[in-house]
Each structure stands twice: as structure tokens, then as C-alpha cells.
Amino acid sequence: MGCACVKPSTTSDDRPRTTRIRKPEPWSHTEAITRVQLNALREEFWDTAPHYGGKQEIWDALKAAAESEIQLAQAIVSSAGIIVQNPDLTLCYDERVTGAMYELPLYVLSEPTNLIPEE
């Protein structure tokens, strides 16, 4: 019987790369939008996104991260096994499923600069 040579698991090559999450850059909707309209867009996105591919639990984790403060979002993404391609969470991958890509629009991640204030 022989012995296989195995790289130690503590080398930097074996550690998953962690991208630090940050808030998205300021953005504007195509026209001024109310809070009610923004919330409707967000609801529609989260309701339909899983139908275009990927795992429901990853979509749920991304939604929780999108609605959380940066530090909590970082913990959610890390524990869910999400590879963050863009630090603002607009493009992510599932580390367990090859090719599972998740694209998030800016309107689910932050407020637009042309949000109409509530009266």
C-alpha cells in the first residue's frame, strides 16, 4: 500500500476567497419613484427570481443579506456559501452548484437618489 501526498489544509491556496461586501454606488431610477413603487418592484423581483434558476435557499439568503446591515450581510453570505463576484452583491454565485449565478438589481440593494419622499 502506498501513501498519497496531500497538501495541508491550512495553505492560503485552499482558503476560499472572501470578498468584503460594500454598499452600492448611488444610483437613480429611470424616473422619480415613490416608496410604494420601489417596494412593489422589490416584491416582484424576490417573488420571481427563483423561477429563473438557482436554489431557493440561496435566494432567501441573498434577500436577507440585501435587507441587512453590511456586517450581518457579510455573515449571511459567508455562511450560505455564496461567492460574491461584485462587492455590492449585484453578481454572486453558489459555491456548491457550478454555474449557478445570481444577479441582483440595484433597486433591491439600496435606495435610489430620486426617491420621492413620503408626505
Automatic annotation (TrEMBL):
Comp. bias (Basic and acidic residues): 12-22
Q: Where is this region: Disordered?
A: 1-22
Q: Which organism is it from?
A: Artemisia annua
Enumerate the InterPro entries for this protein: DC-UbP/UBTD2_N (IPR032752), DC-UbP/UBTD2_N_sf (IPR038169), UBTD1/2 (IPR039869)
Superkingdom in the source lineage: Eukaryota
Cross-referenced Pfam families, in alphabetical order? Answer: UBD (PF16455)
Start and end of every DC-UbP/UBTD2 N-terminal domain?
19-117
Q: Can you tell me where the transmembrane regions are?
A: none
Q: Which residues form a coiled coil?
A: none
- What is this protein's record name? Ubiquitin domain-containing protein 1
